[in-house]
Amino acid sequence: MSIDLYAILGLDKDASGEEIKRAYRKLARELHPDVNPAEEERFKEVTAAYDVLSDPEKRQRYDMGGSEAFGGFGGGGFGGLQDIMDAFFGGGAGGFSFGGGGRGPRSRVRRGDDLLIGMSLPLAETAFGVTREVSVDTAVACSTCHGGGAAEGTTPDECAACHGRGEISQVARSFLGQVMTTRPCPTCGGAGSVITHPCEACAGEGRRRERRSLTVKIPAGVAHGMRIRLTGEGEAGPGGGPSGDLYIEVNELDHPVFERDGDDLHCKVTLPMTAAALGTAVDLDLLEGESERIEVKAGTQPGHVITVRARGVPRLRGTGRGHLHIHVEVTTPTDLDDEQERLLRELAALRGEERSASGGGGASLFGRLREALTGR
To answer: Do residues 159 and 185 touch, judged by C-beta distance below 8 A?
Structure first.
């Protein structure tokens, strides 16, 4: 009988231990019975090959006999594949067992699932914190049976299918000989016992659905997408197990004036041309509801940024606040009356900025641009 364990794993004979491990993990993920039940026999073959090749001593003994025949180590020292498996694994019971047998019954008590809910908050509340009430539908421990699932005065009975072991074993034949597999008992779910008289209040589940109101404190400085954990406020665990956690995911709403960038805030202030030229003061309503007088220096240009320190968002982890950045926009008047236009022309003349209509010494802007491009 010709068996090549390296070929089963898709490897060459000189494969390293790390290559053997990687090859097995890849095949195990593809062939595991929980993922691909039709490949259970091949999964057993891959597992048996890995058990030999991953152990240096077993691999050396296998290599000494060569990969041509499992049943002929040096001229017939072994009578067949089962003898080889017995030699490698210390057999003698006529079979090879895998699948995690012997673990015993599983506890009914398990931790509950975590829950996630979203909460939409305006920028002012994410920046400075808020306390909110939320309602959640969760599984809570049954107050009648206290999570056990059995009716009052009764206890679970031993499972007749597995006799309390929580597992059942099956023997199948393969190229490796007799292979024993062990899996959780389908009757009791691996618990080793069944609830013959379930609690009427929860139908033996040990849990029931309930709507609860919780007070959630949102700390100052949280940002969009962050999650706040409320320990033990999730689903109650089966069998009276501990509850999972509840996570609140923050959805920060857009603000009509301010934009957030980390701990900093940005906003725009629009000024008329004359105010930007002469300087002015602007009263700005801040995010926290207070008012701040912003001084704009004479000659401020469009796109200039005025930074007000420590007027941004409080830092979530640390002390202090970010900064407020005010972006200045300057508007040019478009509806001048005759008097306003005359005054602007006088100002332009005084500053030498008038727009000449002739091609004389005071060339227009377009005339100067043409001269620069043509050299005339």
So the answer is: yes
Same domain, 363 and 298: no
Last residue of a domain, one of 94, 126, 152: 94
Domain residues for the domain of 173 are 115-252
- Cα 370 to Cα 23, 354, 355, 357, 366: the distances in Å are 74, 18, 15, 15, 6
CB atoms within 10 A of CB 5: 23
pTM tops 0.70, yes or no: no
Instruction: Kindly report, residue by residue over 187-210, the tens digit of the pLDDT.
Output: 998 899 999 999 999 999 899 999
Q: Both ends of the chain: CA-CA distance in Å?
A: 99
The Cα–Cα gap between 125 and 185 comes to: 52
Distance of CA 86 to the CA centre of its chain: 47
Label each residue of 161-209 as H, E or C. CCCCCCEEEEEEEECCEEEEEEEECCCCCCCCEECCCECCCCCCCCEEE
In a domain, 75, yes or no: yes
Q: Is residue 102 part of a domain?
A: no
